[in-house]
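Box 3.1 A note on notation
Throughout this textbook, protein chains are presented in two layers. The first layer is the amino acid sequence; the second is a token string describing backbone geometry. Keep the layers aligned when reading.
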Amino acid sequence: MINSSDISVIIQGPIDKTMIKFSVETIRKFLPKATIILSTWEGSVCDGLDLDVLILNKDPGSFYCDSDNTIMTNINRQLVSTKNGLNQVKTKYSMKLRSDLYLTSDKFLKYFDKFEKFDNKYKCFNHRLMVSSLTSKLYSDVGNNLPTPFHISDWFYFGYTQDLKKFYDAIPLIEDEAAFSKYVLKYPEKLPCPHLAFRYAPEQYFAFNFFKSIYKDLRFDDWSDFDEKNIELSNILLANNFIVLDTVQHGIYTDKHMGLIKKNNGRKFSFKGYITHYKFLKFYKKYCDNFYIIPLKYWFNKRCR
């Protein structure tokens, strides 16, 4: 298994004094030799944290992304803090971790080399990146349950540093807030969440812009612009470039959803529309390895689906 000395963990985002201390402590416990890089904002209080590198970035700010001006999007903040963190990495592997997340084990590492087959036409990285099933979506879990292609979780990523750099380097900052948050949708009647006014969900913005940098003819003008072709392509690209793990597999949590975890007796989240590990395995078998045998536990345990 991968040695923690070959891993850098980039904790990015705003600082909650209690949460960040706990997050760092869990990384030291489960990845004891990892390099810990905290990439946050100027003026943040970071005293007493067991860090290897501290980066205090100029805050690029956020902007409203709903019709009532109550919900903010932090896309630029994630891009700035993560890119600047990655620029300090000297190890082979990296983990990008939101600052409100913490580790409960290192068991996610055992999945890294389990999926070795690809369709080279759709392989964009040297190795798949690992992500969470939480907020990786096939369709909207609220409102009208419409499809959400390219909606791959951004809570954490783990993989080769060069692959993470390739991913983030391809994603531009949003320079024109109005063109993003007040964008006139192509098909407003197909909007997955009618109260939201942005062009793409943050997860879609990251994944789509990356894939668009490679596949120049890729079309997905906004998150209402889905059809059978780009939905299928989204599933193919997911299968060939990511490994989706349920929370019980990756062991990375946030207090924000601990109530739901407890309700499921510590098992995976079971939100409607999310891409579970089982669904990922089905995509992997369909698009990458026809001979792959999905373990029986996923067929008979509905909670795994």
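The chain has ten helices and 13 strands. Residues 260-270 have pLDDT under 50 and may be disordered.
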